[in-house]
Structures are given as C-alpha cells and as structure tokens.
Amino acid sequence: MSDWGADEYDEPGIQAEPVADDRPLGAGHPFEAPADNEDVHKSAPTLYFGSVDEFVREYLRNVYRRKIAGDGRTRVWAAEWWKYDEAVIRLEALWRAWEHLRQEPTTGMSVWWRDHADHHMAMLMDPDGPFAGAEGLNNSCKRGEPLPYAPPPAGMFADVRASRLSAAPTAQSLGGNATPA
User: Fold this and answer.
1) Which of the listed residues 1, 41, 157, 175 has the most CB atoms within 10 Å of its CB?
2) Which are the contacts of 76, defined by CB distance < 8 A and separation ≥ 6?
3) Structure pTM?
C-alpha cells in the first residue's frame, strides 16, 4: 500500500521486514566512519594530470579527434584555448570530472563521456560558442588528427599536484587572467 491508498500490485501476506546487519562495527561495516581523518587524506586518490593545460595537451585533444575546418562555419576550436574564459572554465570542469570519474571502475568513463565531455565539447565547438571567430590554419585539423594546440604562457597553469591545492582550482586556472581573443 502506498501513501495514496491500496495499490493494485499489493499482495496480501507479503510484508517488508527490516534486515539487520549483524556484522560488528569495523571490518568494512558500511556505516562506520573512518577512524582517522588523516588516513582518509593519505588514501585519497592523487591527480593524474597536474593542470588543465596538461589534461588538454596530453589527453583531451588526442582522444577527442574531430575535423576542424578552421572556417568558423562548422565545428570550431582554438589552439590558444586558454585565451577564452568560458573555455578555460569548461575545460577545467572536464578535467576535474575526469579525475574523479576515472576512479569509478564500472561506468565512470561512460558517465564522463556522456554527461561531461560530449556536453561541454559540443558547447565549445559550436560555431556560436566561445571559440566563435577562431579561424585559420592554426585552428584547424584534418579528420583523425589531434585538436590544434598552442602552449599557454609559462606559469599560467601551475601543477596543482606540487602545490598541494589539488582540491580547489585557482582563480587563474579558472580563467581569471585569460584575455578575450
């Protein structure tokens, strides 16, 4: 029976009973908090990539291969992606989501592609998106080639693994110092 009255699927004689977990606390009991917060931090996964630039340079541009004509009419991409505030923020979000979801062994990467990469990359590559106007040969690539890439200015994206700030993006890494192109 639901809150709305008798359900046609209710069968007489079937009752839900709570199930007790007789396991003692400890030894993996699902409701026991970790004993020491320090142990939680020690076992926290480390970042694979140290910055959004490293993520774009070493991973994203190599796995998300699309033909970019460089004419601004179909898909667009900017080799100097770091000059576009919205792009930096979206790419930072993609990187952070990837770092988290890579730890999920069953559906993590599928969720990342479906809910994060496909969504943000469609927004970034839209001719009316943040890279609108990014034209020319340096912003183009043939089908099957990595997305165009130009390195950002030195020091623009610090390796957060070294700075121990991996839990929070910096204002600079979120595009605070990026200049519109």
Assistant:
1) 157
2) 68, 125, 126, 127, 129, 131, 132, 134, 135, 139
3) 0.66
